[in-house]
Structure formats: structure tokens, C-alpha cells
Amino acid sequence: MQNTLQHTALDVEKVRADFPILKMQVNNKPLVYFDNGATSQKPKQVIDAIAKYYYEENSNIHRGVHTLSQRATIHYEFARETAQKHINAAAVNEIIFTRGTTESVNLVAHCFGKLFIEKGDEIVVSEMEHHSNILPWQVLCEEKGAVLKVIPVNENGELILEEYKKLLSDKTKLIAVTHVSNTLGVINDVKEIISLAKQKNIPVFLDGAQAVPHMAVDVQDLGCDFYCFSGHKIYAPTGIGVLYAKAKWVEKFEPYQVGGGTIKTVTFDKTVYADGPLKFEAGTPNMEGAIGLATALNYINEIGLETISTYEDELMQYATEKLKQLAGVKIYGDVKHKAAVISFNVNNIHPFDIGTILDKQGVAVRTGHHCTQPLMQHFNIPGTIRASFSFYNTKAEIDIFISALEKAIKMLS
Ligand code: PMP
Predict the structure, then answer these.
(1) For residue range 206-236, what is the model confidence (pLDDT) as tens digits?
(2) What is the pLDDT of residue 9?
(3) Which of 65, 76, 243, 275 qualifies as a cystine partner to 96, CB 3.0-4.6 A?
(4) How far is the CA of 180 from the centre of ligand 1 (A)?
(5) How much is the pTM?
(6) Residue 362 pLDDT more than 80?
């Protein structure tokens, strides 16, 4: 095993000590966790923050005059500010807490669709989208008689921007694309996508689920109308996510779900809804999730997103080179501009078979279509093996993965 990370600023052993689960053995082998694209592991700082909330603060927020309720409210709203700063939103009221990326897409499809989509309108997505950024738009189009248009990808798994340009017309009402592909790791040129859309005054929704864990994101610099991500992919708990919506949309949109927490006044004749994000956060929200999310964002900011990006990039380059040395390996989306994800297949071996044998050796990767069936159809494959890295992974783990893979190939060939 080779020593890791002498050339970067990241102290990986210190970082690894923060993640209790990384010490586990799986199938009597040290766990090598390369399924970070599906969900990340949690540092003890996040686990402790959630435990502290239940030990010392648990109380319902926003409506209590008592001390615990006020404390919980302050922490929940402080988490909103932390999320705002993290993606550099202009105002805290532009941050809506949701259950995650999927709910964020559904929220915007519902609210935007209700007010602005009519028969014959067009919504543009891309061929590489996660199902969560296809289905809500597909359903909206079916309901309204609108048309879903698709930006194709080329053989490298990059969006074909020339084709995107051709799709833009007076009928186009919204563009919804992913910032980073969960299957390929390809980073899309979202600035160009937004700039072309802006020339025609078309709002842009970005799915940031796979971008936010790997790079600094500045929504004002990007100029998007909507941006979303999931807590669980960024070292925070499940069941919490962030939807950024420009203030004008927060103001215009009607509530997505209604109930307690969304209102100013209710009578049997008329309800007046709250201003700002509370209008969309019906019912008792995920307080501990928000607190865990803020803790996770602070945690990665302490390490620094540039340090994280540089380190993860090093891991990805290292793994890519090693994989390319194995006969029969085909990498999908092998481009320069990508985040720490590698999708590949080996000859005609089914990805599930390789994944199962890797697991027996303690190596966790994801296999299958990664909720991107249209992209699999594009490549004419049932699925891929996806290794996705985090800053707590090491080159030594990549060595283990490669030798486990060699064993699997030998057994299955
Ligand atoms: N979009 C992308 C790009 C994703 O990677 C994922 C999760 N795999 C989702 C959307 C859905 O996220 P969630 O399940 O957290 O709602």
C-alpha cells in the first residue's frame, strides 16, 4: 500500500478519524467506501450535533415562547443562513428547506408549472439527467399538454451545446439540467447554458446534487434561477435538502403543500400565507436535519472546498490511470472537466456481478443504471460500475479496489 497525500494540504488521516464508519470491516475486510455519489458518510461532528439537539434542545420551532423552542428556532434559522452563505445566495429568504433534491425539483415543477406552463409550451432537460430531474417535468408536461425537449449528449457523455441552442425558442419556458452528472461525473458548462437561456429570458433550474459536495458553488455568479442539493450527499443527514430560488420566484410562487407553518392568518373564508420560504415548509420541519446540514457545511468549509476539489481530483486521476491499465475496461464520460466519479464496464461482464465480488472484498461501489436510464439507453448498456470518491478516500484504497477488481475480472472471464 502506498502512502497517501504527501503533496496536498489535506490531512486525510485526520479527516478519516472524524468518520467512525470508515473503521468498519465489511465481509472481514476493511471497508473501502466508493459509493459517495449515492450518499456520503457522516463525520462525528454532524452525528454529535444531532445528538446534542435531542439531548439539549428538542422542541418545536417558530411558535413557542419558551426557551427550548426559541433556541431550536434560532438554530434552524441559523442553518438557513449557513446554507445561504454556502452557495452565496443574495438573501436568506431565497433558501427553502426541502427533503432533498427530488422534493426540490417537484416543488419547482409544481409551483412554476401551475403559474407559467400552458399547452404547447416547452421545457428543456438533458439526456444525462437523474430520473428525479426528468419525472416531475414529464408529469407537468403531460398534465399541461406541454412538450419535454432533450439536450443530447455526445459519445464522451458531454452535452451537445449546438443542439441545445437549436432547442431554444419562444415556446421554451424553463431549462432544467444537472450541474454535474451523477453517473459520469461530467461537469456541465452551466454558465454557457444559462447565458444562452438568458438571451431569451428563459429561467434555468440547476440540479446541484452532485456538484455541491465537490466544488464551491456561487449561485449569483452562475446566475441561475433555481439551484438545489441534498444534505445526505454532503455529509449531512438524510431528509434535508436545500432549494435556492431567486427572490422573485419565492414571491410569485404559491405554496406547494399547505398546512401549519405556512400561514399568516387563517379564517374559514380566507388564508393569508407567510412571506418567504416558510410558505413552502408545511408542517413541523426537519429541525435536526437542518442543524446537521449546517454542521456539515461548516465542516467542509473548514477543510476548504478548493482543497477538497484538488484532492478528489488527484484520487480520480490516479484511479482513472490504474483502471485504464486493465484490459477490457471502458470508461464512460472520460473527459477533462469532471468531478470525482468514474463509471465503467469491463468487457461484457454484467456490472452487478463485479459489484457483488467487490463487496465480498469490502469494496462498496454502485452498479446499475444510477437512476439515469435514458443515459444508459444512449450508451446502449444496462448499467455501469460507478466508483465515486470523497476527500476521506485514499490512494491506498484505490489500490485495494483495483486488485479486488482484477480478482473479480479473473473469476468472471
Ligand atoms: N439528482 C442527482 C444528480 C442525483 O445524483 C440524485 C441522487 N442520486 C438526485 C437528483 C436525487 O437526490 P435525492 O435522492 O437526495 O432526492
Answers:
(1) 999 999 999 999 999 999 999 999 999 999 9
(2) 85
(3) 243
(4) 11
(5) 0.96
(6) yes
pLDDT at 8: 55
Same-domain pairing of 59 and 148 = yes
Whether residue 273 is found in the same domain as residue 315:
no
The residues lining ligand 1, judged by C-beta closer than 6 Å to any ligand atom, are: 100-102, 130, 132-133, 178, 182, 207, 209-210, 230, 371
103, 107, 127, 130, best to mutate for ligand 1 pocket (most atoms within 8 Å of CB): 130
**Alpha carbon separation from 29 to 274, 363, 392 (Å, rounded):** 53, 8, 18
Ligand 1 atom nearest to 99, measured from its CA: 16
Same domain, 311 and 296: no
CA atoms within 13 A on the CB side of 22: 23
Please calculate the CA angle 189-238-263 and round it to the nearest 5 degrees. Answer: 90
* Active-site annotation holds for 371: yes
Q: Which three cell numbers stand for residue 135?
A: 419525472
Q: What is the mean pLDDT of residues 250-278?
A: 95
Quick: pLDDT tens for 140-190.
999 999 999 999 999 999 999 999 999 999 999 999 999 999 999 999 999
Give the span between the Cα atoms of 117 and 110, in whole angstroms.
10
User: Is the pLDDT assigned to residue 4 strictly greater than 60?
Assistant: no
What is the average pLDDT value for the chain, to the nearest integer?
96
Does the residue 22 lie in any domain? Answer: yes
- The grid cell for 266 is 387563517
> pLDDT value at position 3?
41
- Mention every residue, 6+ apart, whose C-beta is less than 8 A from residue 176: 105, 123, 124, 125, 129, 133, 137, 204, 205, 207
234 & 381 share domain? no
In residues, how long is the chain? 413
Q: Which of 39, 178, 181, 182 to mutate to test the pocket of ligand 1 (most atoms within 8 A of CB)?
A: 182
The 10s digit of each residue's pLDDT in 292-344 is: 999 999 999 999 999 999 999 999 999 999 999 999 999 999 999 999 999 99
DSSP-derived secondary structure for 136-170: HHHHHHHHHT-EEEEE-B-TTS-B-HHHHHHH--T
Q: Is the same domain home to 18 and 118?
A: no
Which of 301, 316, 344 finishes a domain? 301
Q: Give 6 Cα–ligand 1 centroid separation in angstroms.
A: 33
Alpha helices in 304-350 (DSSP H): 305-324
Q: Report the alpha-carbon distance of residue 411 to residue 413 in Å, rounded.
A: 6
Q: Say if residue 192's pLDDT is above 60.
A: yes
Rounded alpha-carbon distances, angstroms, from residue 324 to 70, 156, 330, 400: 56, 16, 8, 16
